[in-house]
């Protein structure tokens, strides 16, 4: 009985980019996190203290999308606020987020990618209406 020595790439340690701190924070801000906690302190069956905590951690864009309330005095007329509430999507070529209308009708400002719809518009062909255009 002999054992053959062959390189086994499956046994080599590998690190996925999906587990980096940057990816975790980006996902957390993109998807949002809501924490609900009820804390009660009681002695001999008598409740001495009760605390209810509801905390949300999300980007302004995500919070606005889900209708979370913002603190009084939040200035909604700033450029940053308007950028947060405008509809964005991820470019399929470079993976960066840009305004949806610009991606669909023009090009990606980061890498220059063009959608099939923008190519039809550029060629002078009538662009087909999507269900989003009817709104």
UniProtKB/TrEMBL annotation:
It is found in: Gas vesicle. InterPro entries: Gas-vesicle_GvpA-like (IPR000638), GvpA (IPR050530), GvpA-like_CS (IPR018493). GO terms for molecular function: structural molecule activity. Pfam families: Gas_vesicle. GO terms for cellular component: gas vesicle; vesicle membrane. It comes from the Bacteria. Keywords: Gas vesicle. The keyword Cytoplasm does not apply. Belongs to the gas vesicle GvpA family. This is Gas vesicle protein GVPa.
């Amino acid at each position: 009985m002999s054992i053959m020595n062959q390189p086994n790439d499956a046994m080599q340690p590998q690190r996925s980019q999906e587990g980096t701190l940057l990816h975790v924070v980006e996902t957390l801000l993109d998807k949002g996190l809501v924490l609900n906690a009820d804390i009660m302190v009681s002695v001999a069956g008598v409740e001495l203290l009760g605390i209810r905590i509801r905390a949300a951690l999300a980007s302004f864009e995500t919070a606005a999308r889900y209708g979370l309330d913002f603190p009084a005095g939040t200035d909604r007329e700033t450029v940053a606020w308007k950028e947060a509430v405008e509809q964005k999507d991820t470019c399929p070529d470079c993976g960066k987020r840009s305004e949806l209308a610009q991606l669909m009708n023009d090009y990606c400002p980061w890498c220059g990618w063009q959608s099939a719809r923008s190519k039809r518009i550029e060629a002078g062909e009538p662009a087909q209406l999507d269900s989003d255009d009817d709104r």
